[in-house]
Amino acid sequence: MALLRRCRVNAALTIQLFSQLFHFINMWSFNKVVTSPTSPHPQQPHGVCYCTRTWGLRLKSKLAQLEAWAERQGLELAADCHLARIIQAAHLLQVLSRRAAPKYNADDLATLSSTCFKLNSLQLRSLLSKYQPTPDEPRLPHELIENVVR
Questions:
Q1: For the chain, is the Cβ count within 10 Å smaller at the N or the C terminus?
Q2: From which residue to which does any coiled coil extend (predicted)?
Q3: What's the mean pLDDT in 135-141?
């Protein structure tokens, strides 16, 4: 960014460059999370499942750092626009453990769905289906997944 400013690159071009970069980060990281294996296969002993609360927390922390940097550079609108999907996916993974109570009510489902407005139904289904709870959490019931997706 300092080099772009020193060379007096047009601000609109700078915004377009970083918008593309934020879009790529969003696309790559979201695809990595959604396509991660749910459990390691014998042929893939190092396969990592990213659909966990721990990875949601890590991802949210790193994205917050990126958002803070973008805000300091005056790129907060581009970051908000292009990183929204992965930020919402990370938030969803983080809060699922709080929602994994034995009983679910309509308010919980509505709140969960409203925080993920950038995620379409297929993306929500994939994230919720692949979610790996910690040993002390119950698994997400299929009915819950279908209600949230609906």
A1: C
A2: none
A3: 77
Q: Retrieve residue 24's tokens.
A: 């790529």
Burial (Cβ within 10 Å: 0-12, 13-18, ≥19) of residue 80: middle
Handedness of CA 65, 69, 74, 78 (dihedral sign): negative
Report the alpha-carbon distance of residue 124 to residue 84 in Å, rounded: 14
- Answer whether residue 99 shows pLDDT above 80: no
Q: Looking at residue 47, what is its pLDDT?
A: 65
Domain count, the chain: 1
**Considering the domain boundaries, does residue 9 fall inside one?**
no
Structure tokens at 29: 């990281």
End-to-end CA distance of the chain: 43
Other C-beta atoms within 10 Å of 125: how many? 15
- For residue 40, the model assigns a pLDDT of 52
Residue 12 lies in a domain: no
- The reported pLDDT for the residue numbered 143 is 80
Look at residues 75, 67, 107, 71 and name the one whose alpha carbon lies nearest to residue 91.
Answer: 67
Here the tokens at position 66 are 């990126």
Domain enclosing residue 130, as ranges? 17-29+49-148
What are the E-state strand segments in 4-89?
none
23 lies in some domain: yes
